[in-house]
Known about the structure:
Blueprint: H1 37-46, H2 48-51, H3 55-71, E1 74-76, H4 84-98, E2 111-115, E3 119-121, E4 126-128, E5 130-133, E6 138-142, H5 143-151, H6 159-174, H7 178-195, H8 197-206, H9 217-230, H10 232-238, H11 240-250
Parallel strand pairs: 1-2, 2-6
Antiparallel strand pairs: 3-4, 5-6
Helix pairs in contact: 1-4, 3-4, 4-6, 6-7, 6-9, 7-11, 9-10, 10-11
Amino acid sequence: MLSALYVGRSLLHSSFATVITHPKYTHFYFPLKKLAASEKRVLETEVDYYKRLSVKHKKYYEHRVAKFLQTHPIVPRESIELTPQMRVLIASSSVSLTFGLKRYTYRSFNTILLYPNTYYSTITKEYHKGEFNPKNKVLVFSWEHFLEGKKNPTDNINLGLHEFAHALHFDMKLKSHPNSIQFRKHFLKLLLELRNPAKREKILATGYFREYAFKNKYEFLAVLVEHYFETPEVFKQHFPVFFEKLRKMLNQ
């Protein structure tokens, strides 16, 4: 969930460059960072996105995981023991989401807090499974519910992807970069599609997207991201326009 304390300015009011360009390259790293053997094993056995990559792109993916963990420390709470599996799976959710983007670390948060299960937020005065709070620059996960999102890869509920999508959405409003310009441009088109009453009714009638997606534009994007990664073929078949615009937003 996106913290209720933050009320963002509408993307409809964002300004766009008149000419859209793409970065000349997405992956260029020197030197390439490497993961420990135990961390790489997690990718090889538990991360389907990584398994599908070429040998060259696997090295880029590993570099991004290492850089992500260096940039955004994961802090365990309530005596949970942080393991290589936890660190790599959390990082891989973000790296998979942003693998088509040149910039893949975040300005909107610094630290990730990890609880063993549902936690009570002293800020919102509610219990949460996960939370993105740009005001305090933290991202928070319940490990139990993060794992639930990984165990069923086709239910379109993935806590890691959902919360990282909120953070990416926020970051893309802050940056002036070809990827962020493209992101905002196509998200605006998505919102305009949703404004069409006939199309909105059709979307609701299918029941493909859970009701929570229509709470606001932030949750709409986060839920779309879950569907894009978990059931891409179904998504593309039933909502090809949405699928293509999201693909362009993420440059996947």
